[in-house]
Amino acid sequence: MHVAEEIRAEAVALIDRHARGAWKPHDADRRAAVALFRFLETGLPLTGEQIRSALVHTEPPAGASEGLRALLRATAALLDDTAVADGPAGRDAVDHVCLLLDALALARPDGT
Q: Is residue 43 in a domain?
C-alpha cells in the first residue's frame, strides 16, 4: 500500500466503516489517532516521523486489527517521499488520512 491512490482508498473505506459502525477501533488505534490529531491541531504538516513515533508509543494489544496501523505506516512512507507527497494524489491521500484521524480522535471511546 505505497501508492497514494491506495492509501486514499483505504482511508475512505475505514472512514465509511467507522461512520456506519462496522469498525470499532481498538484503544491503541484511538490513542494513536488522538496523538496525531493533537499534532494536526497545531497547524503544522504531518510527517512520517510523527506517525512512526505515535505508532511506537501506542503498540496494539494482542489480536488488534492491523488496518489502521498498516494505513498509517504506508502514509508515513508516502510522506517520506516528498516528491510524491507534494503531488495532487499524495496531498489528497494525506488529507483523507487526516479526516480519518479526526473522526477517530473525536469519537467517544465507546465508538459513537
A: yes
Q: Which domain holds residue 63?
A: 4-106
Q: How many angstroms separate the CA atoms of 92 and 56, rounded?
A: 25
How is 64-104 classified by DSSP, letter by letter?
---HHHHHHHHHHHHHHSHHHHTSHHHHHHHHHHHHHHHHH
**Whole-prediction pTM value?**
0.88
Taking 90 as the threshold, does the pLDDT of residue 108 lie above it? no
What is residue 60's predicted lDDT score, i.e. its pLDDT? 66
CB 94 within 8 A of CB 78: yes
| pLDDT attached to residue 64 | 56
Cβ atoms of 2 and 74 closer than 8 Å: yes
Q: Does residue 45 sit within a domain?
A: yes
Closest CA to 67 of 7, 19, 110: 7
Cα distances (Å, whole numbers) of residue 70 to 42, 43, 45, 61, 110: 25, 24, 20, 15, 23
13-17, 71-75, 107-111: the lowest-pLDDT one: 107-111
